[in-house]
Write a structure and sequence with these properties.
Layout lengths: L2 H22 L4 H18 L1 H16 L1 H10 L4 H14 L4 H4 L1 H18 L13 H9 L1 E2 L2 E2 L20 H27 L4 H5 L1 H21 L5 H43 L9 H6 L13 H5 L22 E2 L3 E2 L16 E2 L2 E2 L10
Antiparallel strand pairs: 1-2, 3-4, 5-6
Helix pairs in contact: 1-2, 1-7, 2-12, 3-12, 4-5, 9-11, 9-12
């Protein structure tokens, strides 16, 4: 039923065994161990872009986590309405929860496929999917310090005893103990790296707290305890998979953090460029573009400009003297220049006469 998984896994494993078998020899444990390691690296390289998409989706979900909490409070009793609103919110932010889980969902069948293919490398088998009888014999003859890659310290259901693989428990433990320690340690470090990315609200969530404890402590301990029940090659898979994940997380997280930091810097620079400089009057055109600002009539320069225009009326109805005629404001003993009315309203004009005689100078005796 799962041949669509078993055959691709077999093909990738066969390819890398041919590569490293050409260098180290086809029946060496190093060639088969490296073939398993690079099988993992090949599959994880294919899943690199989905992993980046997963990290970005998680970052976006952290950004609108408060909105999710509001929806849960509002529609807590209506599960159907809550699911609809959650789906709407996720579509608005461009988040696909299924896409975020894709790398994990793909790794599970790969692990199952590799476990099945390695289990089928039994001495009496004539073939193992794409591997022929010579490859089966080569795999069973390969060893690392006497430990066989297809054997397990505690035989699982259907597995052959260690005597059939021509190895012993001490020989297996020499290779298995360092691998099981590394597998548990890398699993813990990888989980701790992921938990450190969570927000305070996520860590305060009881469900998230339980999952964090599982990934930080229960899973690593489970790897160490379950190692004797697994073929030795599976431990190589587990160590290389967690080592790749740890390095990939560091690279991707640093890349996304730099992108976020650059966005913040660009936003601050844009705000500084739009803000008026010290001592500079606001641009009326820019002010008009602001929301709620009243439109400014064309040609108008504001309050200051309207008050400086010529022919503006004085408070007492006296015409203001234009700036160009300000130097000749008074002549002939107090008359206003250019025929303007006198300040005391006597009606005398510059150079005018009264009863045929020159007008006498008048004094302003009354203050208005």
């Amino acid at each position: 039923m799962l041949n669509f998984i078993y055959y691709p896994v077999s093909w990738i494993l066969w390819f890398w065994h041919e590569v490293f078998g050409f260098v180290f020899g086809p029946s060496t444990g190093v060639a088969w161990a490296l073939a398993v390691v690079f099988l993992v690296f090949t599959l994880r390289a294919i899943l690199y872009k989905p992993f980046v998409h997963q990290v970005r989706s998680m970052r976006k979900m952290q950004e609108f986590a408060p909105e999710i909490q509001k929806l849960k409070k509002k529609y807590g009793n209506d599960k159907q309405k809550l699911a609809a609103e959650m789906q709407k919110l996720q579509s608005e932010h461009g988040v696909n929860p299924v896409g975020g889980c894709l790398p994990m969902l793909i790794q599970v069948p790969v692990f199952i496929g590799l476990f099945h293919v390695l289990r089928e490398f039994q001495p009496y088998k004539m073939e193992n999917y794409v591997f022929d009888r010579a490859d089966v014999v080569s795999f069973n003859d390969a060893s690392l310090f006497g430990a066989k890659l297809g054997a397990s310290v505690v035989p699982y259901h259907g597995a052959l005893p260690l005597a059939d693989y021509n190895t012993t428990i001490p020989q297996m433990m020499i290779v298995m103990i360092p691998l099981m320690i590394m597998a548990g340690l890398f699993t813990h470090i990888t989980a701790r790296h992921s938990v450190a990315r969570q927000t305070e609200a996520q860590m305060a969530n009881p469900q998230s707290a339980i999952m964090n404890k599982l990934t930080l402590y229960v899973f690593p301990i489970g790897v160490v305890v379950g190692a004797p029940f697994l073929p030795l090659a599976i431990l190589f898979y587990w160590v290389s998979n967690n080592l790749w994940t740890l390095g990939q997380q560091r690279i991707v997280y640093n890349k996304i953090d730099r992108e976020e930091a650059e966005k913040v810097v660009k936003k601050v620079e844009t705000q500084k460029n739009l803000a008026p400089k010290v001592g500079q009057k606001p641009d009326p055109v820019a002010r008009q573009k602001k929301p709620g600002a009243k439109p400014i009539a064309p040609g108008s320069t504001g309050k200051a400009g309207s008050e400086s225009g010529s022919d503006a009326a004085a408070p007492n109805g006296t015409p203001k003297v234009n700036g160009s005629n300000g130097d000749s404001a008074k002549s002939n003993g107090g008359a206003v220049a250019n025929g303007s009315a006198a300040a005391d309203g006597s009606g005398a004009s510059s150079g005018g006469q009264r009863n045929g005689r020159p007008a006498a100078p008048t004094k302003r005796t009354r203050k208005r």
